[in-house]
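Observation: inputs received (chain + 2-amino-3-ketobutyric acid).
Thought: call the complex predictor directly.
Action: predict_structure
Action Input:
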Amino acid sequence: MKKILVIGATGQIGSELTMRLRSIYGNENVVAGYIKGAEPKGELAESGPSEICDVTDAEAIADVVKKHHIDAIYNLAALLSVVAEGKPRLAWKIGIDGLWNVLEVARENGCSVFTPSSIGSFGPGTPADGTPQDTVQRPRTIYGVSKVTTELISDYYFSKYGVDTRSVRFPGLISYVTPPGGGTTDYAVDIYYSAVKGEKFICPIAPNTYMDMMYMPDALNACVQLMEADPSRLVHRNGFNIASMSFEPNEIYQAIRKFYPDFQMEYQVDALKQSIASSWPNSLDDSCARTEWDWKSAYNLESMTADMIERLKIKLL
Ligand code: AKB
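Observation:
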């Protein structure tokens, strides 16, 4: 049975991915790695082992890997795009110095590694519609620069040392469990909270700004499916485009209004968020992921909206 360490296990993706991995590989085989001040709570804390594991501390990662005989690391530690713009040095320290620590520990201990990339790895010079798998990547944000570097250094560790590195480029992720913190796509989560709470939504992103988005269950499937994929079929390794839906603010607003006809939205565009959003693609072409490891999403805007609203009603009301 696989022994897995999730670094960043209490974050937006980590909190759900850890539980999904425990349901597949067994509770005792998935270690939730967290930093001080972000301790696991509730089911996450009670269902399996957890360890302090700061990605910037190589020795701590090595200790946890050795203690639990880890053979796969999901490295989810990162600052999201908007926060990273305010703290570029810290973003690099966590995203790249941290990744270097993970890759070195993986090399020494024979672990495979999953470190997500993002639609943020693209920039204004990238073809915006049907963005190909292999294309221009010249992002203007530190988040994007660190994601391109993540893809390249992860590929390098595979070709130079044979470390089994794999990753996807996540779209904006939408979930009712753990809110995201400081991303450009967060509005597409926040809008559901406003609708269910009966509040007017102030939209920080301008009309007609299309970005790829994905419901969390699809994102979790992508992580597991790629890490289980037959390596002989993989032409690419790090930074697979994956896609399920692309929309602009009015389209998600209209989808929610089918459930809440009186729901109100007003635009108050945030300059930083908008400049980041405008530099990202409208929609990715995920055909390489479909061909190389049979990727396919399950949710679209309508089915995600129905599920989000139902779940948030239980959580909030
Ligand atoms: C962000 O908005 O920063 C993230 C992402 C798309 O990578 N959600």
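Thought: report the result.
Final Answer: The chain has a mean pLDDT of 98. The first strand starts at residue 4 and ends at 7.
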